[in-house]
Structure formats: structure tokens, C-alpha cells
């Protein structure tokens, strides 16, 4: 019990004083996850919209099954695949980005894409057909009517993006494999917690755990907010 209390006391001190090493790890984590999230959103939202709005999309159900399966893709499998691709003897070894932040961003982008695409598909698919019919009746083109539907589904799409960020911020397997957990270069919150726990430096691990919980709490608050806005928007369709 004394070990836990002492660990929490030291962890609180590290957070209060904004310890340079701690802040460096946190900032790198946010940089990697937010960059990967941006890539996943830029690719995932249009993909989800295309699959939903194009009813005669070739192999539509097959693609949906692939996306839904990929939502639960084990991070260590992604990390292993990228390691084999980016290693010196791999087909992309000439890029020389293994054990760097870009490799971690690629790994997390692969994890974010199916989550954003699948949840965007679900959000856009939940918009009542009357929205598209009304837009077409008012003279909108097919593209304009599609944009109207996407706009109506924006809160659901944002919720999907936030859900993807929640997974990325807590992911450890892929970034540990392709990043190497190098101090000052590729050490992020989750990989640092693993390392510090193994070393017995529980104060650092607890401090990082508190920060990670804080990030998760903020993500859940944002998800709750956008879910309520989305539900309210859905209610207005029918009144």
C-alpha cells in the first residue's frame, strides 16, 4: 500500500511541475495520434460516404465486411506487417523510416481508417431518405444532395472520428513494434508505461497513466456531447 501511495504522490508532483520528460512523451503521443487520426479521417469519411451513397457500389457487401472486420484488427498484427514491410530486407526498407515517428503514424492510420469509414457509413446511412429527396426536389445535383446528407450526419461522423482517436491514444502493440520505444524519438505514453513498469519506476508510469485517463475522459465527454447533438438532430427530422 505504501508503494502505491508513494507512487501517486510522486506522479502528482511530476504532473504538477510539468516534468520535461513527461511532457515530451505526452506531446509526442498527441502528435502521432492526431496526425494518424487526420489521415484516417481524410481517407475514411469519403470512403464511408461513397460506400453508403453508392447503392450499386461493386462488391459493396464484401467491402463492408472487410471494414467491419478491420475495426477489430489486432494492433500487434498491424505492427508485425509494417515491420516486415519497413525492415531493411523488406520491400519498403529503402524508405528508412522503421523506428521513427512516421512509421508509428502509418501504423495508427491503418488502425484509424476502418473505424472512421465504418462509423461514417453508419452515420450517413441513418439519415432519413427524405433529406435527399427534398434536396433533389429543390433542384440540387447528385453531388449537392450527397453533401446535404453528409452535413446532416456530421455529428455521427465526428463521433466516429473521436472513437478512433480513443483507440489510437490507448494503442501500444503497433507503435511498440515499429517505433522501438526510443527515448525522445518514439516513446509515447503507452509504450513508456510498459517500460517504466518493467523498470519499477511506478511514479512515472502512474503519472502517464493519469494523463492517459484524462485524455480518455475528454474523449468520452466529446463522444457524449456529439451523440446527444446527433440524437437531437435525428429527432428534429420527424417533428
Could you characterize what this model shows?
The protein starts with a helix and ends with a helix. It is globular, with a radius of gyration of 21 Å. It has a single domain (2-237), classed as MetI-like (MetI-like fold, Orthogonal Bundle), CATH 1.10.3720. The protein has helices at 2-16, 20-53, 60-70, 75-86, 101-125, 129-137, 142-152, 154-169, 173-179, 189-199, 202-237. It has 239 residues and is mainly alpha-helical. The chain is 78% helix and 0% strand.
Helix content: over 70%
- Cα gyration radius (Å): 21 Å
Shape: globular
End-to-end distance = 57 Å
Hey, roughly how much beta strand do the residues contain? under 5%
How would you classify the helix and strand content by structural class? mainly alpha
Q: Describe the main β-sheet briefly.
A: none
Number of domains: 1
Task: Determine the number of helices (DSSP H or I, runs of at least 4 residues).
Answer: 11
> Which blocks of ≥5 consecutive residues have pLDDT under 50?
235-239
CATH topology: MetI-like fold
Which homologous superfamily in CATH is the superfamily?
MetI-like
Mean pLDDT: 86
Give the class-level CATH name: Mainly Alpha
Element order: H for helix, E for strand:
HHHHHHHHHHH
